[in-house]
What we know:
CATH topology of one domain: Outer membrane lipoprotein wza fold like
Radius of gyration: 42 Å
Largest sheet: 5 strands, mixed
Helix content: 10-25%
Order of helices and strands: HHHEEEEHEEEHEEE
Shape: flat
Distance between the termini: 123 Å
Amino acid sequence: MTALALSGCVSTTGPVAMAQPQSDLDYMAYGQPYATAPSSSAVADSSGGGAISALRNALAASPRRAYAPQPTYAAQPMAAYASAPLPAAYDASYKLDAGDKLRVVVYGQEGLTNTYAIDAGGSITLPLIGAVPARGRTPAGLAAEISAKLRNGFIRDPSVAVEIESYRPFFILGEVQAPGQYPYVPNMSVESAVAIAGGFSPRALRDRVTLTHTDSSGSTRVVVPLGTAVRPGDTVQVGERWF
Length: 243
């Protein structure tokens, strides 16, 4: 009787595979583990059915989306991103003068295309046509003058463009840290000119300066605030305060 009772307490089931335990939520989040799993017939289903079991079966049956690997980009040297220097921006009505450096392009004529500086006499000198007056002209006006001279016995239908490669310098004097001559920067103001010269000295008058502008009609000298525009060739005079 004791043997029969013991044999009745032992229930025989199908073979059970021993695998690393994994919860239903882990399965839904991460899928099947990487280790080789036994066949479905050898794994005991202990989920007990219900919503979680149905959701797990639906996820297992649905196809998994395959994602293409993202392309990799080789590192580029910093020099590859450096942009080429651009010509100086200028107003179309800007009047040329001595010290301006120009880029003259004659299309189809490499021997004439070059960089030319306006000399102290206010002219540039090109092959074939010699000196061409530039002082007081706009870049477009100078291009028209060069075209007219080339058309007169040299080139049948010349196409000429003139752009400013660099402006003539400006000058700053008086109570700044480093007075002198500096390259002009487009859209300069008196304040930025003072900054280029190292800033005000301790004795500088800081709210106004004297600005001198010279062109073909003569020189003008006016007292201006710091926000006033500076043009190529101008002279900025920073005064001294007395208290």
